[in-house]
Write a structure and sequence with these properties.
309 residues; alpha/beta; two-stranded parallel sheet; 45% helix
C-alpha cells in the first residue's frame, strides 16, 4: 500500500522546480538581432551544444549533421535542463536534459574535431567548510544545518567533480599532443557555494567575483600555463595579472555611469519573474551596442602577433 501510494505521489510531483522556457525566449530574441543568428548552419565557426537523451542515456550534439536544424536557443535550453531543477525539453518526440547526466566535461567534442587547446570552466566544486567558521561564513562547519538543498548541492558537486578527474585523465591518454586546461573555484571559495545564483543581484556579484578569482588563479598558475599557452600562440599578459585592482566592467569598456545603471538593475527594476528580468537585461544589452561604435578601432599590426589573454 505504501509503495503504491509513493509511486502515485511521485508521478504527481512536477519533474522540475523551475521553468526555463523564458531562457529560450530570451536567447531567441537576442539571436534575432542584426548580425546574429539562431541557426547553427549560419555560423562562421562550428558550435556544438551537448545534451542527453533522458530515455536512452545517450548524448546528442546539437550543431552536428542531423541536429543542426534545431534552433541554438532550444539546444541551449535542453543542454541546461538540469534534472530536478528544470523539466526535460522535448525534441522530435524525445526528452533531453543537461549533458552532465553523462559526463561532467564533453571536451572530446572539441578534441575529436582537432582542437589543440581546450579551456574547461567548471564552477561546480564541492565546498570545504574547514575555514568557514574562521571566515565568519558559518557558525558551525556543518552543512546539515543549511538543510536539504545545501546537502543535495554538495552531493551533486562531489559526484560531478569525481567524474571530472577521471575524464581529464582519459583525455590525456587518448589525445596526445592536445592540452586541456581546467579552471575552477577553490574549495574554500564560499561565495561560489553559498550565494543564491537565482538572484539577479547575486548573479552580478558572482560575475564580478568569477572575473577576479579567475585572474588570481591565472596569476598563481602563470608559470605552468605560460608554457602550455605558448604552444598554441597565446601569451599571458603579466601587466594585466599584476594589476592591484581588477574591474570587470572597465575591462569590457563600460563607462562609470553605465556601470552605475547596471548596478541599479536588481533594486530599481521590478522583476516579478524570470521573464521580466530577462527583458530588462535585454534592454540594457541593446543599449550597450551603440557606444561600442564610438570607440576607435585598434590599429592593424604589421605582422600577426600572439593572442593575449
Amino acid at each position: 500500500m505504501l509503495a503504491a501510494l509513493t509511486n502515485r505521489l511521485g508521478r504527481a510531483l512536477p519533474v522540475g522546480l523551475f521553468d526555463n522556457r523564458p531562457l529560450r525566449d530570451y536567447l531567441r530574441r537576442v539571436f534575432a538581432k542584426p548580425g546574429r543568428t539562431d541557426d547553427f548552419r549560419e555560423l562562421k565557426n562550428a558550435l556544438y551544444v551537448v545534451a542527453a537523451d533522458l530515455n536512452s542515456g545517450e548524448a546528442v550534439r546539437f550543431g552536428a549533421p542531423g541536429w543542426d536544424d534545431v534552433p541554438i536557443s532550444q539546444a541551449i535550453q535542453a543542454s541546461s535542463a538540469l534534472p530536478g531543477l528544470y523539466p526535460p525539453v522535448e525534441l522530435r518526440g524525445r526528452q533531453y536534459v543537461d549533458g552532465v547526466l553523462l559526463k561532467t566535461l564533453h571536451a572530446s567534442v572539441a578534441l575529436d574535431h582537432g582542437a589543440g587547446l581546450v579551456l574547461c570552466i567548471n564552477p561546480l566544486v564541492p565546498v570545504d567548510t574547514s575555514r568557514a567558521v574562521e571566515e565568519g561564513v558559518m557558525e558551525r562547519a556543518d552543512l546539515l544545518e543549511h538543510g536539504m538543498p545545501t546537502v543535495l548541492s554538495q552531493t551533486l558537486r562531489t559526484i560531478i567533480h569525481s567524474r571530472l578527474d577521471t575524464g581529464l585523465a582519459a583525455y590525456r591518454e587518448r589525445y596526445e599532443g592536445a592540452d586541456v586546461v581546467l579552471i575552477e573555484p577553490r574549495r574554500d571559495d564560499y561565495t561560489m557555494f553559498f550565494v543564491n545564483v537565482f538572484s539577479f543581484s547575486a548573479r552580478r556579484r558572482i560575475v564580478e567575483h568569477a572575473y577576479v578569482s579567475t585572474l588570481a588563479q591565472l596569476a598563481a598558475r602563470r608559470e605552468e600555463l605560460r608554457h602550455v599557452f605558448a604552444r598554441h600562440g597565446i601569451r599571458l599578459r603579466d601587466d594585466v595579472l599584476d594589476r592591484p585592482v581588477h574591474d570587470l566592467w572597465a575591462s569590457v569598456g563600460l563607462r562609470p555611469e553605465r556601470r552605475r545603471s547596471r548596478a541599479m538593475l536588481p533594486s530599481t527594476v521590478p522583476t516579478r519573474d524570470l521573464r521580466d528580468a530577462l527583458s530588462a537585461l535585454e534592454e540594457l544589452l541593446t543599449a550597450d551596442d551603440a557606444p561600442k561604435a564610438e570607440r576607435p578601432a585598434p590599429e592593424t599590426p604589421a605582422r600577426p602577433a600572439p593572442l593575449d589573454i
